[in-house]
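Feature request, filed as a ticket because there's no other form

It would be nice if the structure record came with a short human-readable summary line next to the tokens. Right now we just get the raw output. Example of a typical job, pasted below so the devs can see what we mean:
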Amino acid sequence: MIDYTGLTSKEVKELQEIYGKNQIKHNKRGSVLKKICSIFVEPIYFLLLSAAIIYFLLGEAVDGLIMIAFVALVICVDLIQDIRTANTLKKLRELTNPKITVIRDSKECHIPAEELVPGDIMLIHEGVKLPADGFLLDVSGLCIDESILTGESEGVWKEASTTGGFQGEGGYFRKDYCYAGTQVLLGNGRVLIDKTGNHTQLGKIVDEINNTSIENTPLQKQMKSFAKQCTIFAAVFFLLVFTATFLNLKNAPSPNRIIESFLAGVVLALSMVPGELPVIQSVFLSMGALRLVKKQALIRRLPSVEALGAISVLCMDKTGTITKNDMVVSEFWMYQNQNMKLCKALSLACKHNSYDPMEIAMLSYCESLCLECSKKESLEACGIATSQPVFLKEYAFTNELKAMARVYHMEEKYFVTAKGSPETILSLCELPRQQEEIIHNKIKKLSKKGLRVIAVAEFTTTDIKELPQDLSHCQLSLCGIVGLEDPIRENTKENITACYRAGIRILMITGDHPETAAAIAKRVGIQHWEFVISGNEIDQMSDEELKKAISICNIFARVLPLHKMRIVKALKEAGEVVAMIGDGVNDSPALKIADVGIAMGKHGSQVCREASDLILLDDNISTILEAIHDGRRIYQNICKTLGYIIAIHLPIALISFFAPLLSIDAKNLLLLPLHIILIELVMNPICSVVLERQPADDQIMLEKLRNPNAKLLSKGLMLKSTLQGLILFITVFLWYYLLLEVTSNGEIARTAGFFVLVLSNINLILVNCSDKESIVRSWNKIRKDKGILLVNLLTITITTLLIYTPIHSFFAFSPLPLKILIISILLSFLSVGWYEIVKLFQRKIDKNIKKQS
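Raw output as currently delivered:
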């Protein structure tokens, strides 16, 4: 038995001690220190710090500080990427912070929503945003917008709870229950609070977000695997070089012998671990993110830039994504061509300043037809007398009748204007049989289009006593039929067709009715739209059964947020790379767990935007296609860059390996740890900008989807890069060794070898821009790119400053004589230019194959 006097102050205090505040709790974000510690797990940073410590022990403080500065730079880049700029759960809490009216100690009082406890009786009315879940004790024409949880655009008409509680199909979308975060559109009622805080349906969404960690993108996984392999090789060669150097330094004192052996091993390890990968990856993804912003796509998590290029399934919410989430009147059928009569009746039947999107749409349509029917001049145009209608009362909407009406007095007449379910309205009208069949056929046609059909009728009398007690006893005169829809976004069908051409499968996941979902899917061209699975059916499926179902079904309807998450999880477990597009809180868990979460920026909820990886600033699906194109281009160019990294790392590693074997004094080594860091963290990333700016292949959106588990380097690319690296090593090392023997000046020999290596670095990138086109043609394509010109100029400028300014002493360099400089320039071209001959033969072979075919 419910006590309608409400809780006492004492009971409230006891319950607050048990349940706490009505707030959604969230996990605290990790500290900056914790993030920095996680970065040092990477082997490259450990090696860099080890080398810096060795320099300090040797008394080379400047070299040690420079190396630490490089480490700090890369850490800052990683931190900037990792720190999220928003707090999803804070936005969720904002949904449940209004003041609310409750009954306590037998009287009404206004309290902050956070003070609600289970057992409170809450009074709700039009416009209230509900702060907790609860049972409806009584209602009066209560309609609630639950789209925030279900994604269903239509309001839900509620009824009072009975013993055991009435439930909708499958136990969801209860008619006798209301949920936190939803909003009252029409009517009023009393609610017995059942759940607060994280126990509410909205709180469950928060828990799912809390428990969902951000997974690595396919590229991150591939990069990690690549770096791991390099680290294993580096560890093996570190031991070999350490041992070889230690054995060669027989006459050196023990401490110096160990330190120099360790330093030689670190040099080789640094040369084999691709330390520039974090910086290069940041350059590629940051540049891609900047391009996408110009195309109205804001990237919130950098790795998602490339992940877009790998997606194989694109999941879309219907309401607000495929459609605009903005109800409009698309059909306006007048009975017996009485246009103004229908417009007048529909306008008066709607409540002005309503929260109901359908009433707002109908009033807006009437205003466009009748110049705002609520104004005096408009009423004249509609055939109504010049005085303003006076509202008398309302026949409230009920679930049994599925219709409502409003009564007005004007010019000594009483007007009853009704709207609602066609079945109800038509049953209250006297119509000729022939006309009735025409009307029913019209309604069926509109329903098949997926429209929400509303019938409008009126009753006029001069005697107030003739007004019935309820609408069911009213004899109405039909005015017409109105069809409403949530219109489909422009170019949606074309964009979905383009996705299919790119090999991307489309899924619609919506809270709307299956019939509506199927009708919309058919209109926008989603394949196999006839087969629809509901949320109730998903609950009956095991994980394995759901995996089988998603392999053949593209339409999921009447689903809750947790269903959406389960669908996305099943797709990922099946090996798909999944992107999810949404606009509401109900989409946020699925956005968080998807490989790429995409939010609508203009009309999407704040919570949805904060849970996403990418925000569409123009709410245009075609922007996603632009992003996918750029993602594929980035991956293609990253593969080219990795090939370049292998080609440049191989000579560095071999130089570090052979120098100790030839008993070269540690002071005369070609490459010290500082030089390797300079190449990897400055030179290489700067040069790789050229590869990043390479345009994509013309047919990139028609190519087969890549395997996200495949290795980054193909056998052909690995072979080419290895051969280029070997020839570059032979050129650089022989030139360095020859100068060392002839001049006996370690700094001159080191500087010449370093110069050839850096200049060859630039030429190597230009040669590898294309596997078939000549370097001249490749240069013609990019020579107008100011960014590429600036990068090349910057690299040459930095190298010149390192050699011919006083700072050369910090890097153990020496200015090169003119003769040695000229020979070094020629060698840098020859060391990589030979590959142009290979490309020439390849072009001839391709030309002969075309002639034969």
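Something like this underneath would help us a lot:
The first helix runs from residue 9 to 19.
The radius of gyration is 36 Å.
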